[in-house]
Design goal:
This protein is α/β, with parallel strands linked by helices. The protein has helices spanning 13-24, 31-41, 44-53, 61-72, 90-103, 117-125, 165-179, 181-188, 201-216, and strands at residues 2-6, 28-30, 81-84, 109-114, 127-130, 136-138, 157-158, 192-196. It has a single domain (2-26, 79-216), classed as P-loop containing nucleotide triphosphate hydrolases (Rossmann fold, 3-Layer(aba) Sandwich), CATH 3.40.50. It is globular. Bound molecules: adenosine monophosphate.
């Protein structure tokens, strides 16, 4: 199963990606997580990525495409992969198509998680993320058992710099201007499946799995 997950910031891509990757037994490749790991590690790539992500902007395509190409050339992808947060614009979608064509491993499906703008801001501004394992919580809707601590690994929770209210607005603009066009791109290729991203996490996962199984069978 070679899959892409697309949707506005706050649609729950990261959360759903973890469940879907486990269900289909495929690696979860999140460009946002790779950038955050580099930011945390203080690498040159991390410093560069932070200068864009702190403002809600996309990291330049040349950097991101090269990073994804390297990742897709690793040897753990025999079962497929789930790409989360990539591609984020038409150029990236075209580069991805070329990378996969060269490997003769085309995409099976593109899952769009759809969500209203008003819900997005509420979800993102209350989101708290684990510094150690990246799990997400919400100060109102998905509270951790102990305030400020991750239920899964006990790590400290923090608010991502790009989840601040000002940055959310830029991320929404970037999504509407640059990322949304890839939905039409993949619809035209007959690969798009759209699932509403509201309701329980497990309900959304089940809906997504049924839609994906139906699409690839
Ligand atoms: P995410 O966790 O997917 O919301 O990504 C966090 C930030 O990392 C984004 O706001 C961008 O600055 C950067 N980023 C992640 N994926 C990409 C991508 N495909 N292209 C460019 N920048 C990206």
């Amino acid at each position: 199963m070679r899959l892409i997950l697309v949707g506005p910031p706050g649609a729950g891509k990261g959360t759903q990606a973890v469940h879907l990757a486990a269900h289909f037994n495929i690696p979860h490749i999140s460009t946002g997580d790779i950038f955050r790991a580099n930011i945390k590690g203080g690498t040159e790539l991390g410093k560069l990525a932070a200068s864009y992500s702190d403002k809600g902007q996309l990291v330049p395509d040349s950097v991101t495409n090269e990073m994804v190409k390297d990742r897709l050339n690793q040897s753990d992808l025999e079962n497929g992969f789930l790409l989360d947060g990539y591609p984020r614009n038409i150029l990236q979608a075209e580069v991805l198509r070329a990378i996969l064509a060269e490997k003769e491993t085309p995409l099976d499906a593109v899952l769009e998680l759809s969500l209203e703008d008003s819900v997005i801001v509420e979800r993102l501004s209350g989101r708290r993320t684990c510094k150690d394992c990246q799990a997400s919580f919400h100060i109102l809707f998905e509270k951790p058992a102990v305030e400020g601590k991750c239920d899964k690994c006990g790590g400290d929770l923090y608010q991502r710099t790009d989840d601040g209210v000002d940055v959310i607005q830029s991320r929404l603009t970037v999504y509407a201007d640059q990322t949304k066009p890839i939905i039409a791109f993949y619809r035209a290729e007959g690969l798009l499946i759209t699932t509403p991203a509201e309701g329980d996490v497990s309900e959304i996962t089940e809906r997504a799995i049924s839609a994906l199984n139906a699409a690839v069978s």
